[in-house]
Design brief:
heterodimer, A: TIM Barrel, 8-stranded parallel sheet, B: alpha/beta, 3-methyladenine DNA Glycosylase II, Chain A, domain 3, 5-stranded mixed sheet
C-alpha cells in the first residue's frame, strides 16, 4: 500500500477518535504519497506515523489556503462552514508509541547481539549400584516361565539416562485375589467376568491388560475371613502358574500368624519358578519366610512402614541373620496414595534410593510399590465431594484411574522398580510414561511451539 | 542459600540482642534467617547502620548474598493474588523443603468467544478443593494471542485482567505484547516469550515496562545466552522455558533439560541459569487423540514436572479429573518435610453437641483430622470428636505402629472428661481401627461401635446406628 486517499485517511483518524474533520470532503485527486519502505515496515504504527507526517504537511498548506479562502469568502459575505475546525489534528497521540524506541534503546542499552554462553551440565555420579533381582525362571533355569523380569541395576536416579544407563525399566504387576475383594467400581467393571476365577483373572490381566507379572493375594487364608488352610490356598497358586507364563508374586492375607505358613507352602509348590514371597515384615516371623525363599530358590519382599531405619533393619536381618542373598531381596517401603501421605512415601523412597546409590549395601535393593493403594483415596472412588464448598469433582470414572497413574508416576520418580496396580488404563498410561522417559518410545510432535497459537 | 548454620549468619549481625527484629536474641533471628521466615533486611539496626557506614553496608550485602535462595524468586501479579515462583534452595525436598509451589496458569486465547472466555476465567477464579484444613486454588490465567492483532489482544487481556488474577501474556509478536502491556503492565504480568528471533524487542519491553519475562529456547546454550544477555542488560525477573515437548524422545529430552537446568543451577552453582523454570503441559494438546487422552497426558506432564522442578506451568484442561490430582500433588510435594502435618490432640465440639450426641475418635494426623472434621461439619452432624495424639500418623499406620492403643484412648477420655459431657457410654471408632474394638471396651468400659472406613459415610452410618439400640 503505497498511497492512501484522504477518505481512507479520515477513516483512520476516526478510528483513533479524531473526529474534528468529520463531514469534511475534499474533492479532487488529492493523494498522499507514502514511501514504500515505511509501508514495508510491518509495524502499522510506524506506517501511520509516516502518514501523519505527510498529512501534517498537507494540512499546513491546506490551512494556508483555507486562510486565504476564508478571507476571500468573508469579504464576499459568505458563511464559512469549516474555518474553525480546520486545525492540525492532535497527532502527537498517534505516533507516541513509535517515538520512544530511540529513547528506550538509549536509556536501556539494548545490545546488538546475544552474549555467547555455553551451558555445561553438572554431572552426578554415584559410587553404588542397585542390586539386580530376577523374578521368574524359564525352562533353562528349572522353571516354566516364558520370560523373566529383571529389577534394579540402576546407577543413577530413575530415568536420568544422561547420568547412566538404566538397564531395566520398572515392571508392572496386576493384583488378583483368591476371593472377591472390595473394589472401586471403576476398577471392578474391568474384572467383573473373572472375579470368581483367579486363573482367568490372571490370563485377562496378562493378555488384555499387559501385566508383566501377576500378584496373587491369598486373602481367603485370613482367620477372620474363610480361614482357608495354607495347603488348600496354594492350589490357586498352582492354577495361576498354569494359566500364565509370566513371573508370579504371592501375598498372604496380612495376618501375622498365618502368613508365614501360607508363604512357606507357596514356596514349596512353586519350587523352581522363582516367585516373590510377599512379604516379610518386622512384626512377624520374617525368618520363616526368608528361609522358605532361600530353601526353594525364591525372592523375598521386605516390607516396612515408611521408615528408612526400619527398612534398613529388616534388610540387615534378612541378609545377615537369615542369610538371604542380596540378589533375592526386593523392598516395599509402603505406598501412601496421592493426597494421603504420598509426600512421605515419595521422600522415604527417594532417600532409600539415594542411600543405595551412595553405597549403603543395606538399602541397595529394587523397590516395590503397592500402587493399588491409590484407590483408598476418596477422590479416586467417591461420586461427589462431601464438602459443599468444593468445586465440582466431575465423573469418578475419569478421576479414579488418574489417581492411580499420578500415584505411580510420582513414585516412579523416587525410584520404584515394581508397581502392583489394578486399573488397566492406569497400567497402560504409566507404562507409556516410563517407557518414554526410559528412551523406548520414539517420536515427537512437529512443532512443540504450536500450542502458543493453536485455536479451539 | 550458601549458609546452613545460624552461627554463620550470626557473624554478620550486630550481636547486641536489641530485640528490634521481634526475636529475643540475634542468634534466634539468625535461626529464622536460615529457615527463611525472615530476611537480613528485617534487622533494623543493620539496615540503619548500613546507610551510614560503608563497611557495614558491605557486610549486609555479603549476608544477603549468602542467604539469598539459590534460585531467584520472581513475583507475578500484584497485591493479594500475586504469586511467587522459584526461590528454591535444594534438589531433593528432604534436604530442607521446597518453598514456592509450582504456579498453575490456565489458558484462554483472544479469538475465543466472549462467553467461553468469561466461563473459563470464572472457573479459574472460583476453583477450590478442600484439603487439610484449607482450600486448594489456582493461580492465574495465561492469555494467548491467536489473532496476531494488537487491538484484539489488548482488549482481551484487559478483560482477563478484570478477574484480578496474575497473568502470563503469551504472544511472540512484540507489537501485540506492547499493546497489551500499555494497558496492564501495572498488573505485573509475566511476558512470554523472548526467543532467538524476537529477543531485542522483548528485552526492550521487559525493561521499559519493568515486568518479568520468560525466555524460550530448546537449546540450552541459546537459553543461557538469552539469560546472560537479559541479566547483563538489567533484567532481574527471568523465567526459563527450555521448551516442553509432549511425546517420545522429545519428552525424554525435556526431562533431561529441566533436570539439568535445576541441578546445574544449584549443585553446579551456575548463577546465569539460576532462575525459575517454566513447563507447559498444555503442549499435550498437540498430540493425536480425543479430549480425554489429551487431558490425561496433560496431567501426566504436569505431575512429572511438579515432582521435578517446574516452578510455573501453563495448562489447558479445567476438567476436575485433570485439576484435582495436580493441585493435590503440588500441595504434597511442597509440604515442608521438617514439620509433620498434625493438629493438637484433645476434644472438639462440632455443631453444638448435646449430651445425646455421639462421640467419635480420630487421630491428630492433619489429613485425617481435617477430613473427618469437615465431613462431620458439612454433613451437619452434632457430635463430640476426640483427637488422639498418634504423633501425626493416620489411623491405619498408628494402629499397626502402636500409637493408637486402647490405653491411650482411655487416657484421652479421662483428660477430656468426655464422660461428664454425655449421658451415654458409646464411642465410635474409625473402621480402620476395628481391631481395637474389644481392647478399648475392656480398657474403658464403654461400648465401642465400629464406624465406616471413610468418614464421608458417617452420615449414612448414623442413620442406622444412632441412637444405639
Amino acid at each position: 500500500m503505497g498511497k492512501m486517499s484522504l477518505e481512507e485517511f479520515f477513516q483512520l483518524l476516526k478510528k483513533y477518535d479524531i473526529d474534528v474533520l468529520e463531514g469534511v470532503t475534499i474533492e479532487g485527486d488529492l493523494e498522499i504519497e507514502v514511501e514504500e519502505t515505511a509501508a514495508a515496515d510491518q509495524s502499522s504504527l510506524a506506517y501511520l506515523y509516516t502518514v501523519v507526517q505527510e498529512v501534517q504537511k498537507f494540512l499546513y498548506y491546506a490551512n494556508l489556503a483555507m486562510g486565504h479562502l476564508t478571507n476571500v469568502s468573508s469579504l464576499l459575505g459568505m458563511p464559512n462552514p469549516f474555518a474553525p475546525q480546520v486545525q492540525v489534528p492532535q497527532v502527537p497521540q498517534v505516533p507516541q508509541a513509535v517515538q520512544p524506541e530511540a529513547v528506550v534503546e538509549e536509556k536501556f542499552k539494548i545490545p546488538e547481539k546475544l552474549v555467547s554462553a555455553k551451558f555445561e551440565p553438572y554431572k552426578v555420579e554415584y559410587p553404588g549400584k542397585i542390586n539386580e533381582v530376577v523374578l521368574g525362571a524359564t525352562k533353562k533355569d528349572g522353571g516354566t516361565r516364558d520370560k523373566v523380569v529383571v529389577l534394579g541395576g540402576e546407577k543413577s536416579l530413575p530415568f536420568y539416562l544422561f547420568d547412566a544407563d538404566q538397564p531395566n525399566l520398572p515392571a508392572i504387576a496386576i493384583d488378583i485375589f483368591d476371593r472377591k475383594p472390595m473394589l472401586a467400581k471403576a476398577v471392578r467393571e474391568h474384572y467383573e467376568d473373572v472375579l470368581e476365577d483367579p486363573a482367568d483373572w490372571a490370563r485377562k490381566a496378562v493378555k488384555e491388560y499387559g501385566a508383566d507379572l501377576i500378584t496373587l493375594h491369598l486373602i481367603s487364608t485370613d482367620p477372620l475371613l474363610e480361614d482357608t488352610p495354607a495347603s488348600e490356598a496354594v492350589k490357586v497358586l498352582e492354577d495361576v502358574l498354569q494359566a500364565v507364563k509370566c513371573p508370579i508374586i504371592v501375598g498372604g492375607s496380612g495376618n501375622k500368624e498365618k502368613d508365614p505358613e501360607v508363604l512357606e507352602k507357596a514356596a514349596e509348590v512353586a519350587e523352581g519358578e522363582r516367585i516373590m514371597l510377599a512379604s516379610a515384615t518386622l512384626d512377624m516371623d520374617w525368618e520363616r519366610i526368608a528361609n522358605a525363599a532361600k530353601n526353594h530358590g525364591h525372592v523375598v519382599l521386605s516390607w516396612t512402614q515408611m521408615d528408612i531405619n526400619s527398612q534398613k533393619t529388616l534388610n540387615r536381618y534378612l541378609l545377615k541373620r537369615a542369610g538371604v542373598s542380596p540378589n533375592d531381596i526386593v523392598m516395599d517401603p509402603t505406598t501412601a496414595a496421592l493426597g494421603y501421605g504420598i509426600d512421605y512415601a515419595f521422600t522415604n523412597m527417594e532417600r532409600i534410593r539415594i542411600s543405595g546409590l551412595k553405597g549403603d549395601s543395606d538399602l541397595a535393593f529394587p523397590i516395590s510399590s503397592g500402587t493399588t493403594n491409590a484407590w483408598g483415596a476418596r477422590e479416586a472412588w467417591m461420586k461427589d465431594s462431601p464438602i459443599e464448598e468444593d468445586s465440582d469433582w466431575g465423573p469418578r470414572e475419569l478421576r479414579g484411574p488418574i489417581w492411580e497413574i499420578v500415584t505411580g508416576l510420582t513414585l516412579s520418580l523416587a525410584g520404584v522398580d515394581l508397581f502392583m496396580m489394578m486399573h488397566p488404563g492406569a497400567v497402560a498410561v504409566l507404562k507409556e510414561v516410563m517407557y518414554t522417559l526410559g528412551g523406548k518410545i520414539s517420536g515427537s510432535v512437529a512443532d512443540p511451539g504450536d500450542w502458543i497459537v493453536m485455536e479451539g | 542459600m550458601k549458609v546452613r548454620s545460624p552461627l554463620e549468619v550470626y557473624k554478620f549481625l550486630p550481636q547486641t540482642n536489641c530485640g528490634e527484629c521481634g526475636f529475643d536474641t540475634c542468634m534466634s533471628f539468625a535461626a529464622h534467617i536460615i529457615d527463611r521466615s525472615v530476611k537480613p533486611e528485617n534487622c533494623p539496626p543493620l539496615i540503619r547502620d548500613a546507610e551510614k557506614d560503608a563497611k557495614i553496608k558491605k557486610k549486609l550485602e555479603q549476608l544477603q548474598a549468602l542467604t539469598s535462595p539459590e534460585i531467584a524468586e520472581v513475583v507475578i501479579g500484584v497485591g493479594d493474588s500475586a504469586v511467587k515462583i522459584g526461590g528454591e534452595d535444594v534438589i531433593h525436598r528432604h534436604e530442607m523443603t521446597y518453598f514456592n509451589p509450582t504456579a498453575f496458569f490456565y489458558d484462554v486465547w483472544d479469538t475465543m468467544s466472549e462467553k467461553d472466555l468469561e466461563e473459563k476465567c470464572r472457573k479459574v477464579v472460583e476453583f477450590r478443593k478442600f484439603y487439610v484444613g484449607k482450600f486448594l486454588t489456582l493461580d492465574g490465567i495465561a492469555v494467548r494471542c491467536t489473532s496476531n492483532n494488537p487491538d484484539t489482544y489488548k482488549s482481551v487481556v484487559e478483560k482477563v485482567a478484570s478477574y484480578g488474577k496474575p497473568m502470563v501474556l503469551v504472544a511472540l509478536n512484540p507489537d501485540c505484547m506492547r499493546a497489551a502491556l500499555e494497558s496492564v503492565a501495572d498488573k505485573r504480568p509475566l511476558i512470554y516469550a523472548a526467543t532467538e528471533s524476537n529477543w531485542k524487542e522483548f528485552l526492550k519491553l521487559a525493561l521499559e515496562f519493568n515486568v518479568p519475562v520468560a525466555i524460550r529456547a530448546k537449546d540450552l546454550d541459546t537459553l543461557k545466552s538469552l539469560a546472560v544477555t537479559f541479566k547483563e542488560a538489567g533484567v532481574k525477573d527471568i523465567v526459563l522455558d527450555p521448551v516442553t515437548e509432549p511425546l517420545g524422545e522429545g519428552l525424554k529430552g525435556t526431562f533431561e533439560r529441566v533436570v539439568n537446568l535445576r541441578r546445574t543451577a544449584i549443585l553446579g552453582e551456575d548463577k546465569d541459569i539460576a532462575f525459575p523454570i517454566m513447563v507447559t503441559p498444555i503442549s499435550a494438546w498437540l498430540i493425536e487423540g480425543d479430549e480425554v487422552e489429551k487431558a490425561y497426558w496433560e496431567t501426566v506432564l504436569g505431575s512429572m514436572f511438579i515432582v521435578k522442578y517446574a516452578d510455573i506451568m501453563i495448562f489447558r484442561s479445567l476438567e476436575p479429573y485433570s485439576v484435582i490430582p495436580t493441585v493435590t500433588l503440588r500441595f504434597n510435594i511442597y509440604t515442608d518435610p521438617r514439620t509433620p502435618v498434625q493438629v493438637d490432640p484433645g476434644l472438639r465440639e462440632i455443631n453444638n453437641p448435646t449430651p445425646d450426641s455421639p462421640v467419635f475418635i480420630t487421630t491428630n494426623f492433619a489429613l485425617t483430622y481435617y477430613t473427618v472434621e469437615s465431613d462431620l461439619t458439612s454433613a451437619g452432624i452434632s457430635c463430640y470428636l476426640l483427637v488422639l495424639n498418634t504423633e501425626g500418623l493416620g489411623v491405619e499406620v498408628s494402629v499397626a505402629g502402636g500409637q493408637f492403643t486402647a490405653g491411650k484412648v482411655k487416657e484421652l477420655m479421662e483428660e477430656t472428661k468426655i464422660a461428664e459431657k454425655v449421658n451415654h457410654k458409646y464411642l465410635v471408632i474409625p473402621g480402620l481401627a476395628a481391631r481395637l474394638q474389644g481392647a478399648i471396651e475392656d480398657e474403658t468400659g464403654w461400648t465401642v461401635k465400629v464406624g465406616p472406613m471413610d468418614s464421608g459415610r458417617i452420615k449414612g452410618w448414623l442413620e442406622t446406628n444412632w441412637p444405639p439400640k
